[in-house]
Design goal:
By secondary structure, the protein is an alpha/beta fold. It has helices spanning about 5-15, 20-55, 60-105, 110-115, 120-125, 125-160, 160-210, 210-215, 220-270, 280-320, 330-340, 390-395, 420-425, 440-445, 450-460, 465-470, 490-500, 520-530, 565-575, 575-594, and strands spanning about 350-355, 365-370, 375-380, 405-410, 410, 425-430, 505-510, 535-540, 550-555, 560-565. The longest helix is centred in the middle third of the chain and has 53 residues, at about 220-270.
Amino acid sequence: MSFKQALLDYKQLMKFMRPRRRLYYTGLIGDSLVNSGLSILIAFVIKDLLNFAVSGQLEDLYAAITIVVSSVVGLCILSPILSYLYLRSIRLTLADMRMQLYKHIGKITFRAAEEHHSGDLLSRMTSDVQVVEKTYHEHLRSIVSQIAMVTGSILVLCVVDWRFALVLVVLALLTIGINARFAPRMRAISDKLQAQMGILTERVGDLIGGLQITKLFGLRDQIGKLCEDASEEVSESGLKQGHQSGVLEACNFAVQFFSMGGILAIGLYLVSRQQLELGTLGLILYLQIGISSTFLQVGAAITLMQNSLAGAARIHQLLDEPAEPEGDRAAAALSELAYQEASGNVPALELCNVTFGYEPGRPVLRCLSMSATEGKVTAVVGPSGGGKSTIMKLLLGFYERESGQIHIQGKALEHYRIKELRELIAYVPQEAFLFHDSIAGNIRLGRPDASDEEVENAARMAQAHTFITELPDGYATIVGERGSTLSGGQRQRIAIARALLKNAPILLLDEATSALDAESEHEVQLALQELMRGRTTLIIAHRLSTIEQADCICVVADGSLVEQGTHEELLAKDGVYDKLHDLQYHAEQVLVSV
């Protein structure tokens, strides 16, 4: 690792500390100077005590006592204040870092979110933040303290005996060179280790999240093997890191051991020739031992700091992920003007020649044009993989189209900020997601300031009030992770109540009843009828029986609109819709006969 790269890594690490860098550096450097200064003063205490033991002069004893008392008083006053300053700055910075990550994860594009495993994101918010905290709190403090100790010791030795100072400077440079040679290997291992920790978190997350499927299909050995493999990779990298750290520590120890032995031998020779006081030799040896210990600690700190640099790089990598675009209102205004001049009766939702693909060169939608009339129910049907759910994602702003125009209530999609766009739309997915919160809390997500009466009214309209009141804690019942304590139909009705409470003018339903049994589907359909009343509704459905009464049915296949009309009109055309209808009808007849 070059000095330039090390400097860049350090700057990246300290970006988070920028708002409090003065407070942090004041506490860090001040505390390091106080502690290293105390160590150097102890060397003078040893010198005076040894001289007192040889000469018996009380002045030497009084000098040692004075240094000890003044050092203790100074340490008791300054150390707590300085420690508080830099610890406060660390705690506040880590809180900001986590909040920054949390907010940014909520802002990144849907595409970027899908490219990250939830376990990887969790690892960056926990494991990576923890290793960064260790550098702020321990590793940098150790390095700065040891640098201050070495610098102070060498300056003292320059005054006491320049020959020994010169020897220690040479040894210091040698030790720095050894550590510099090990740094690139340590950083490479640390980068790999942090990435593997993220993968291990992913595997454990999959094991816990899919525990029911794991038990149902007897996959404990297979899934456990994935976790075991990931754990072994982490262990292997950890062992490599430990090996490199051990070799580095051995090199540092060898240099310092032979230097101490040489200084002791030379010093005793000079004392025997009366060219050096015994007390001065004691001072030199104490400082030399301190410097030896310093370089051993610096080597360990540099080794551990590579983990923090790798963690900081992963955090910055996540923060560099693109955020959802806020819309280009200037471009949207021109688009609206041309659109309104060319349009008469403006639909509530309209896609004009929209092309989109998740991967370059593989379009999912191909020049798709379709619309939904205000206040009416429009259904989208077609073969799997035809692009139905993609239409929903584009309308919700999860992805940006490659070409074409999307208009919502007569305005170009770019006219809306993301928050404004999603305030206009209520969305009920195929599988409702509930947070580990109360039923009331999950419904109130539709409108956080809603009163208890409004929450209950929404639940009544969603056919959910009855089963909620039968629960032991009613609306205060905690639903568990992802609503695990409720049935699929109950979760869907709570999601519908949430959408009712939001009271948005546009409603998107993505196969909201496809995963339910007949009884639950009936209850949910009643709730959906209430939800759709007076709203512009776009429904994606696989079961054609659920959308026969739609005002308009759009048949999408291979990313294009191939048919459009009412249920009766489409059956009369003997086209794609008629074939889908016949297939489902015959399949249902077979199931009934069985």
